[in-house]
What we know:
The structure is a homotrimer of 283-residue chains.
Chain A: H1 13-30, E1 33-37, H2 43-53, E2 56-58, H3 66-69, E3 75-79, H4 88-100, E4 105-108, H5 116-126, E5 132-136, H6 137-148, H7 159-174, E6 177-181, E7 185-188, E8 193-196, H8 209-223, H9 228-247, H10 253-266, H11 269-275, E9 278-280
Helix pairs in contact in A: 1-8, 1-9, 1-11, 2-8, 2-10, 6-7, 8-9, 9-10
Amino acid sequence: MEMETKPREKPDSTRWASNAWALLCAIRSQSPLIQCITNFVSMDLMANTLLSAGASPAMIHSVEEIPDFTPHTHALCVNVGTLSPNWLPAMKAAAELACKSGKPWVLDPVAAGASGFRLRACLELVELKPCVIRGNASEIIALSKASVGPTKGVDSSHESIDAVEAAKSLAQASGAIVAVSGAVDIVTDGERVVGAHNGVPMMQRITATGCSVTALIAAFVAVDPVNAFEATASALSIFGVAGEMGMNMAKGPATLRMHLIDSLYGLDEADVLSRVNITSLSR
Amino acid sequence: MEMETKPREKPDSTRWASNAWALLCAIRSQSPLIQCITNFVSMDLMANTLLSAGASPAMIHSVEEIPDFTPHTHALCVNVGTLSPNWLPAMKAAAELACKSGKPWVLDPVAAGASGFRLRACLELVELKPCVIRGNASEIIALSKASVGPTKGVDSSHESIDAVEAAKSLAQASGAIVAVSGAVDIVTDGERVVGAHNGVPMMQRITATGCSVTALIAAFVAVDPVNAFEATASALSIFGVAGEMGMNMAKGPATLRMHLIDSLYGLDEADVLSRVNITSLSR
Amino acid sequence: MEMETKPREKPDSTRWASNAWALLCAIRSQSPLIQCITNFVSMDLMANTLLSAGASPAMIHSVEEIPDFTPHTHALCVNVGTLSPNWLPAMKAAAELACKSGKPWVLDPVAAGASGFRLRACLELVELKPCVIRGNASEIIALSKASVGPTKGVDSSHESIDAVEAAKSLAQASGAIVAVSGAVDIVTDGERVVGAHNGVPMMQRITATGCSVTALIAAFVAVDPVNAFEATASALSIFGVAGEMGMNMAKGPATLRMHLIDSLYGLDEADVLSRVNITSLSR
Lengths: 283, 283, 283
């Protein structure tokens, strides 16, 4: 409704691509320290994703260390993939301290709907003001429904439309940028919506690619916390570009995983400017 | 003794290979959800093995989530590799709930004999009616001895023979299909014994290949729980075929690991029919 | 000061290289069992590093299993990377039992200065007589300062010199061989200092390479515990050689990671003798 009164976004692919390249350069030169409290499955690929992008990962999850360590980080990534009750207090303490220290933090609500325990944990984390929330469509829909109720007038059989509306509702309710990974990655601040049209389908056949791009979002918002909307779309697109370039050399999911990381490490300006494809989807 | 009264198995390599291919196709089309409660070392390769085979892995281990989540899975894989006392209740709760829900579950008794704590945990898990138990010879022998006592009349200096007899005893006592990985993988239901003659020795120089094939067995029994004996042998053989094909491109354990996963993803009917080599070893 | 009274070391590259090759052969033929109590990020690469070198890794961290298991290992590797309070008792129990059983153990004080909790844990572990301590410059400096106070007369703006002096002080105070990873890896027993000039900078863009070389040190001291100084330098150099050879085939961090492991597996005598570059840095 109120979307109608907004001026139409003028998509500017060149501007988006230039900005994504500038942010990647900032990560490479500043090497931001990213604390990751993440699931066991993702730790290896997530750390290597951050390292290949130029950031500095720190997998530190013990609640005892957070008061000393978290204030020195540049961003925090919290991922509930292999959640257990004894990890939740550290996630919450780190999120609170990141906020208090003015550092952005990013939430990955893996499998948010898999259990009541997990959904409640995600809702508690959403209360702690994440800068960005990234999930797949079913995760964002589950979280949005639990957080703000079902989106009115949306046919639940159309998951991609559902996801956009759910993402906007969740963004408005939480104040976070919300990103939905899919064939096209969607990013919204509750009003503006952009699509990042990079990546290849085989990335879904590699475990922890979703988790890793969330950590990459943390690195991008670390170097530009004021423009988290742009940083989030840029991170999704850059990771997708690395996947596309990796796919040119891949023969299956394992070679793709390897070449994706190498490509992320080696991305140059021409790669980024020619491939980043972010467009406005706002109406 | 009583084995003598059984009719001789008529090995039919073609039938085995066709069946293995049919099961792999079923996994690819049905994408069964496999819950893995497994050790930290194996999580990455296990998840990627399941994804490359077409299954959907879920590493969810918290006891709080099992009542909500486990009934929705198609099979469960429990692996005690990095066991600690706080993980055991979840393993047992998930196993019990899988049984109650009519879903098969598979046990990997990693290093069963490494400590009294671990052996007792494995015995408690065996009591909970796994559909399949897969280990190496020393693990199966340790578990069988602890479960049913030493196999009579077997010269313990002949480990391969030991393992067959121990596997048969364990299968009879537990009601599970028992698989023993080795130069030839052995599968028994307590009466029938088959050998899966696929794979390459270098797979033992890659961590978590054993754990990962156990998860693959879970995916195979998920799509054919009634024929767990055949499904188990098929999974072992298919993983071995992927290893053989990967070995053609490998220069060492790390390239083998990568090409194995790519090969598993790309296996076609001709690969499977020409390479799967399962024969009856029953006397 | 007292260093002046020592006879000058006569660096003998050939002798060092021959010794490194002999130790690698011993690992390949004896396949020592190395217990690793390590962080979640490193487990996969560490296990594969040990396997590719010919050793036998065992990631067993539960305090319940240590009395049964640790006495059967040939060396222990303790790494505090993802430390939490419930893991520390097992680290200490295993270290104590390793000492009591006459088995060498190796400490990796990851991010020793990241928190008070972590630094205290590292100091408690140092008290338990590690055979070797390996870290990067900032970790060794943090540990040395906390252990023996700041090194006098050293300009703290010169980190590499700082690290040598800090390493010597820590070695003297603890009785351990101390290794400092960097552009040149430094090893000291508190008097002698050698530099291992192998490796490539891109190894720092792969997570867990530092953790993995510490585990490799454990394998080297396992086969020659009496000469832990030589074994430590040899392990660092051999891992660096594998990195150099891997770098010849690599296009980025992920291909390097793969080819490093393959190279470590495939190293032959000519590779080792022509590339190992260890020199005395003692004055």
